[in-house]
Amino acid sequence: MTRTQVQIPDALFGRIRRYAEIRETSIADVFRNALELFINVHASADSAEAHSHWTVPVCRSTGLVDDPFTHEDWRAQIYESRDV
Fold first, then answer.
1. Alpha helices, DSSP H only, in 1-84?
2. Most buried by CB count within 10 Å: which residue of 29, 56, 61, 67?
3. Which domain holds residue 20?
4. Residue 46 counted as domain residue
5. pTM (global) more than 0.90
């Protein structure tokens, strides 16, 4: 087994510690299980075959005629021009 170190935010560590306490398991076991689940779920999405079928998404029309960020009230302009 390989030993490693990770840095995580204190709030996340607190949640992990409480999770481990409730389930009467170790923090290390929580990490191992979580990482194994993550890899199993995302392994098929990361395969070369999955990436070979990927295409660039088509941008939907925003209905804007010009660049809204050139106007001082660009936020309001975006919402006014949306199709609702």
1. 10-22, 27-43, 48-52, 74-81
2. 29
3. 10-52
4. yes
5. no
